[in-house]
Amino acid sequence: MENLDPLQLIYNSQVKKSPILQADQVLNSAKSALKKLKKDQYWTLGILSTTLLVLALFFYEIGQFGDWKLITGLSLMLGSLGVRVFLELGSRLQLRHLQPHQATVVFVEKVRTYYKNRKRIQFVLTPIAYLVYGVGLIFFLVAIQPHLSSTFFAYCLITGLGFWLGFIWVIRKSYQKERETLDILGKVNRDG
């Protein structure tokens, strides 16, 4: 039996994992993933709401006196941003109901539902909002062109399209981060 003594020493030297420690790790991972999702959603809501507010103020000051192209363009831009803000607020409320201390089955089901809703927002509704915003931007630019010099119109065209493309890029990047966090959250639940 002396041959088994080294094996016994190796076995005894191994770190034994405590189930309580694993549960704490899973809970902490879930909490940090949810905290990151909430923080990212605040940023997204902040960016969308600020843009919506600036456009609404512009519409109030100038747009209401414009022709139908200007009013249509600004309305489409405001409407698409308003819908996006509404969808983000809905997701924010849904995220509130994700509590890692709930029963695992309940928590996992809520994460799945949240993930499905976010995917629908990200892959279906957001591209439609981008398109509607783009059409509104085109109407807006067509409406203001006769009232501006060609140089200033070129500036408006470049900054307007630049903002639109930058806006799409920022939102897409935030969605990529969100999907990574949701994937981590889903993995935590499969491991737990």
Number-wise, the strands total 0
Strand content: under 5%
How large is the radius of gyration? 25 Å
Average of the residue pLDDT scores: 80
Helix content: over 70%
Please give the count of helices: 5
Would you write up a description of this structure?
It is a single chain. This protein is mostly helical and 192 residues long. It has five helices and no strands. α2 packs antiparallel against α3 and α4 (104-144) packs antiparallel against α5 (150-191). The longest helix is centred in the first third of the chain and has 43 residues, at 19-61. The radius of gyration is 25 Å and the shape is elongated. The mean pLDDT is 80.
Could you provide a short overview of the structure?
The chain is mainly α and 192 residues long. 85% of the residues lie in helices and 0% in strands.
Secondary-structure blueprint:
Blueprint: H1 5-13, H2 19-61, H3 68-96, H4 104-144, H5 150-191
Keywords, separated by commas or semicolons:
mainly alpha; 5 helices; elongated; 192 residues
